[in-house]
Write a structure and sequence with these properties.
Length: 306
């Protein structure tokens, strides 16, 4: 079974990307107008299609695939997926649209930044322009009285959207609210370069104002106590930023800044060994996300000195 019911008309799909459980999931809102959230990466599209099949949803009935952003793990599989969903269109931020139409630059930069992880996710295929709906806000009818509202939540990326569903009152934040590790019930930052702290904090305030009942993380799964988690994440990324700024001022290495984060962040102190041993998070959280804060700190320092 790939699917798991997590709310009214709402299902989580374990994509089992690269054979790694609890790494990436998609979601299906199975109303009279079924909608998918996140295509996931190319290499796990077959598992998503099996999840759709498990729920007895006809592929031609799906009208929309909502993509929080176009990074490989969230929207990289859209071109491949749409070959199997003849009537579906992709909802995506306008800044992400060019990378769906022509994903060559996205693939090249992903290989450079992610290394071996990009191969686990797989090479993206193009999406036809006429099958894309670019937007930063809007409301979509899910049938049965349900609606999906679109919010622009930048910071993690210049093209991150979040989606609020009315059946349960929860939010799909993409990477705007971090990575949820269900085994440990904690959230860790998702902040690869270029990361923009001020935008990220403003986006979290926007999500907090919704008072969501739950967060549906793409990495990974449903988490309750949503408002407190969002508030805690604001504190956490500010802490990482402060540590990175101090490190950059004193010309500390990525490894030194990473180690200071592990020492000073109560969450990282608890789960450091888990993350270090993880095939993906050891690369993304402990290297790319730290580098995102260092990049932010360097830009801030340069601005102060100019």
């Amino acid at each position: 079974m790939y699917t798991k019911r997590i709310g009214k008309k709402l299902y989580q799909v374990e994509l089992n990307t690269g054979g790694i459980k609890q790494l990436i999931c998609s979601y299906i809102i199975a109303g009279s107008k079924p909608l998918l959230v996140e295509s996931g990466p190319t290499n796990s599209v077959p598992n998503l299609l099996l999840g759709i099949q498990e729920l007895g949803i006809a592929p031609q009935a799906i009208e929309y695939v909502a993509i929080t952003h176009v990074h490989l793990d969230h929207g990289g599989g859209a071109g491949t997926l749409l070959k199997h969903l003849p009537n579906a269109k992709v909802l995506v931020h306008p800044h992400g649209m060019p990378h769906l139409i022509d994903p060559r630059r996205l693939w090249s930069s992903s290989q450079e930044v992610l290394g071996f992880v990009s191969e686990i996710f797989g090479k993206p295929e193009p999406v036809q322009e006429e099958r894309i709906i670019p937007l930063t806000e809007g409301t979509f009818d899910l049938g049965d009285g349900g609606k999906l509202c679109v919010l622009e939540t930048l910071g993690h990326a210049s093209h991150n959207l979040s989606f609020h569903e009315s059946f349960n009152g929860g939010v799909f934040p993409g990477d705007a609210a971090g990575t949820y590790i269900p085994d440990c019930d904690v959230v860790v930052p998702t902040t690869p370069p270029p990361f923009y702290l001020d935008l990220a904090l403003a986006s979290l305030d926007k999500l907090i104002a919704l008072k969501p009942s739950a967060l549906y993380f793409s990495h990974f799964g449903k988490a309750d106590d949503a408002v407190n988690r969002l508030r805690d994440y604001k504190v956490q990324i500010q802490l990482w930023a402060d540590i990175a700024e101090e490190g950059v001022k004193h010309n500390r290495s990525l490894e030194q800044i990473r180690d200071n984060i592990i020492k000073q962040d109560p969450v990282m102190t608890i789960i450091a060994d888990y993350v270090k041993a993880h095939r993906i998070y050891s690369k993304t959280v402990l290297e790319n996300c730290v580098r995102g804060f260092m990049d932010y700190a360097k830009r801030k320092l340069e601005k102060q000195q100019s």
